[in-house]
Amino acid sequence: MTYGNSLSTSRISSTRARRGRRELRWGRMLRTAQFASPIANNFGLESQHKAKSASLAQFRKVLGNSSTFREALGLLSNIRQSCLSTARVALPNLVALEISAINVDKIWHYNQILAAVFPHFQSLTRLVVWYCDKLKYIFSASMIGNLKQLQHLDIRFCEDLQEIVSENRADEVIPYFVFPQLTVLILQGLPKLRCLYPGMHTSEWPALENFAVCRCDKLKIFAEDLSQNKENNQLDIPAQQPLLPFEKILPNLKDLSLNGKDVKMILQADFPQHLFGSLKQLEIAEDNSACFPIWNVLERFHNLEILSLFQFSFHEEVFSEEGSLEKHAGKLAMIKTLELRWHYHLKQLCKQDSKLGPTFQYLEILKAYRCQSLLILLPSSSVSFQNLTALVAFGCKKLLHMVTSSTAKTLVRLVAIEIYGCRAMTEVVINDKDGVEKEEIVFRKLKTLELRDLDSLTSFCSANYTFQFPSLQELWVIGCPKMKIFTTGEAITPPRVNVWYGETADQRRWANNYLNTTIQHYMLRRYVYTYYSYLP
């Protein structure tokens, strides 16, 4: 889920999914055409070329067939905006619509034709709106009742967007908005967004499972007193309403992404513990405090499996003991995936020789992206990482080593090691013992080892260990100009391992249990191939 992380999409049948992808291409065609007026009810095109008028009946017929996009695009070039200003265009099969970088102040026309036209979009399940800087709102209030199939709403980087639903001044009744099938709501980079609806209203989100809000500084997500954030009624509605009734959506939430300030509000609120039972994935972004209450997070969200921390101000380590581990013993979530992104001051995951066994014993995936002060990912400790399957580091410019030799011995289930653009790294495994004499480190299940753009890497390990890789299938060594040998000690692999020094088939060699010889041959040919640039 990361702002960057992949977020779950709506579940639709395979037939409708294929149709949706075709019609999503239609949305992209509309974007390419550079609309000069709002685009949903008339798809008005201000043509830059002289063209003949097309029959509206023919246009409707073509658009009604979701498989004839090229023919529809051809018709678009022949249709004048004046001809469509009062037209009724139907897209009854439209399942997904993506709108990006369109210079309009509203998507749908609000006029007398709206009631007749918009039901033709009643099949819409997915709407994505990005980089539309002039938009003031997404829907009018009268449209919401026709969005019964909408499952996925993703709005990002629209600078002037102030509300999601515009106010209907003619309606004297307090509106009641229901999104019966909406499972995904993503709001990001909307600096002027203040509310769902500017007037008094009530709303329900019975199916919401994935909720993400980031960099919407004026948006009020919760009530002032979260413990009182209960179902609103028409007799008791606060003057400044939050985005949604948070306590009502909590039991169904599986994926939540908020900034640090909002997460702290949740921690301080007096919520019953069972309300967080369904939450499996949490992303926390942009917290400036020197010490974030990470232990409270792991206790409150007790069924959490995936934790992503984005752009924090940790001074030293993520997990600081200070007696907290004993205080929360037996109450912590069993984290399986931990992602650390853009932590400029973070030096280590935990202190050397820390005793955080209960915290990491279930960890399967550990990823670090752009942690510019990180020195080592897995230090020496009494913690066993026996369930770890994937270890990833990307663009950590000061990272010298991935793991100590003593910790490496506990990685019995590790399947993949991926290291990209860590230009200070000198070796992957660093020896933390004195007088090593023919000790073995066995990566029994490791299948993939990727080493890319590591300018300072000299070897996998410079100590005299014997490494066994009985399951190794793919070794990528790309952009590692100082790597002369694979390891000082012995490296035992299967009879045939793919060793890649580029992306094409002619930049691959077979290693027959002699990785050192293969690496030396690669260096002699001076095949240094840089795949991507990961400059910090």
Automatic annotation (TrEMBL):
Q: Which domain of life is it from?
A: Eukaryota
Q: Write down what this protein is called.
A: Uncharacterized protein
